[in-house]
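hiii, so i know i said id send this last week but things got crazy w the move. better late than never?? heres the sequnce for the chain we talked about at the cafe, plus the structure i predicted for it. fair warning i was half asleep when i ran it
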Amino acid sequence: AIEGIDVVIDNATACERFELPFDRIGDIVLVSTENKTIGTSEHRHDLAALNEPLRSHGGLTEQAVPFIVNRKLPTLPNEPVLRNFDAFYYAAMAAALA
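okay and structure toks below
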């Protein structure tokens, strides 16, 4: 085990688990733990010149986000597990219905 690395999986497993396109993902996928970002080396990633903090793509700890609505939703028999990127989809759908 390597400190700061949460998951290491092959392409097929990553694409299925994270709903990713097979042709755009490398042979292996590494996911870091909370508050860690993967890079090549410290000297190639000097962040001292940035005015704002750098945002990574996020890890498994950032997938669960609050989902707040202003009315009761019906219970759906096959309701999906919502993840962070689903917020945009549902916001766009709500705007289209308004």
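btw The chain has a mean pLDDT of 82. thought thatd interest u
miss u guys!!
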